[in-house]
Specification:
Blueprint lengths: L1 H13 L18 E3 L13 E8 L4 E6 L12 H8 L8 E3 L2 H4 L13 E3 H9 L4 H10 L3 H15 L21 H12 L2 H8 L2 E5 L6 E5 L3 H4 L5 E9 L3 E10 L2 E10 L3 H14 L8 E2 L12 H10 L4 H7 L13 H30 L1
Antiparallel strand pairs: 1-3, 2-3, 2-10, 3-11, 4-5, 6-7, 8-9, 9-10
């Protein structure tokens, strides 16, 4: 029985410390539409998306949701996290010389020419407006490298408590293990809009970008149709689409001193229509909805890694890029984000100590019987 008890404690130590708590409130764990309406409130609109959330950016109050913590491929909405990671370490006036790697990426591109010089300001407009994947690699390279930027993206996600999010690249293109959630995208957008530079790029409708050849410029345009079509109070934020993610969308609008954020994933109608319905409903029902959760505040700044961890990180950087993406999960919470490595370790150590004590007691009893 003693040995069985020790094994039970060991199993407890090895079990995820996930607990029953859900970041932002337990009601946000439901995969179904969740809302609490006061008398006279309008019913939720039909929104054709796998998961979504609508929240007040100032108070953090979550007004309604559907599966907002379910991890899904984020597509280019992940570029918001790229911006939060790379903007602080770069200047809009920095110059960048395009590489073959950046220019040769697939998917949406702004058209970088290898060897040509660009300003970071131009590149950020390309990241946000046409959602250019070549520009997303370029800003990461200007920030010290793609690997460094991805690591910073995961650090930022942890600090924001966006624990459903795992970044593997800076573009949002489909790659195994790269996920986020509607809840996390709302957290990321909220943090981004608090930065003047992020907010400026997120709200832009058009920009003049350098031509591939020569010194001329051509216009690039946003893919955010709510911005393009002048939705009242619209202030951004980011669209996305890939074959695995489907349509994804994060939007924010401000009316009457109130800013609402919507994040939708796996949208099966137009992104504009889905987001418009939620925003219209949210503004029309101010004060008529009981919050069902909250967008949590960021944690204090993540401390720098100890020297030993930094050395290990440098050793890992010699591995191929694909392997580096996989090993980065060692310092990043997996999908769902509810495993606390510290508690795991403490549980294992405690269980080992109990097991050792019990085995020592059994050994003493045997010696006493023999004497």
């Amino acid at each position: 029985m003693a040995v069985t008890g020790a094994l039970g404690l060991l199993l407890v130590g090895l079990a995820p410390a996930a607990g029953a708590e859900t970041i932002g409130g337990d009601r946000l764990s439901s995969p179904r539409r969740t809302v609490e309406l006061l008398p006279g409130a309008d019913p939720l609109p039909e929104v054709w998306a796998a998961t979504w959330i609508i929240a007040d950016a100032e108070t953090g109050d979550v007004l309604a949701q559907k599966g907002s913590h379910i991890p899904r491929a984020p597509a280019s909405t992940l570029k918001m996290l790229t911006a939060l990671a790379a903007l602080p370490g770069t200047s809009t006036q920095d110059r960048y010389v395009a590489t073959e790697r950046a220019a040769g990426i697939y998917g949406a591109r702004v058209g970088l020419r290898p060897g040509k010089e660009y300003s970071l300001d131009d590149l950020w407009y390309a990241v946000f407006l046409p959602s250019a994947n070549d520009a997303a690699i370029a800003v990461a390279q200007a920030n010290g490298g793609v690997r460094k930027t991805v690591n910073q993206m995961n650090d930022v996600a942890r600090q924001l408590q966006a624990l459903d999010t795992v970044a593997r690249n800076t573009s949002g293109l489909d790659i195994p293990g790269q996920v986020s959630s509607a809840y996390d995208l709302a957290l990321i957008a909220r943090a981004g809009l608090a930065r003047a530079d992020f907010a400026r790029y997120a709200k832009a409708v058009t920009w003049k970008f350098p031509d591939v050849k020569g010194k001329g410029k051509h216009r690039i345009y946003t893919t955010n149709r709510l911005l393009m079509h002048g939705y009242k109070g619209m202030i951004g934020v980011k669209t996305g689409f890939t074959s695995q993610a489907g349509r994804t969308y994060v939007g924010a609008a401000r009316r009457g001193g109130r800013t609402l954020i919507v994040a939708l994933m796996g949208i099966s109608e137009s992104s504009e229509s889905a987001a418009r319905k939620l925003l219209d409903w949210g503004f029309a029902n101010t004060g008529a909805v009981v919050p069902i959760g909250t967008l949590v505040d960021p944690l204090p700044d993540v401390p720098q890694q100890p020297a030993a961890a930094t050395a290990a990180s440098k050793a890992t950087s010699a591995a191929p890029a694909a392997r580096a993406d996989a090993t980065s999960s060692l310092t990043v919470p997996g999908p769902g984000g509810r495993t606390n490595a510290i508690l795991w370790g403490a549980g294992i150590v405690a269980a080992a100590m109990v097991t050792a004590s019990i085995l020592a007691a059994v050994s003493r009893r045997r010696r006493i019987r023999r004497s």
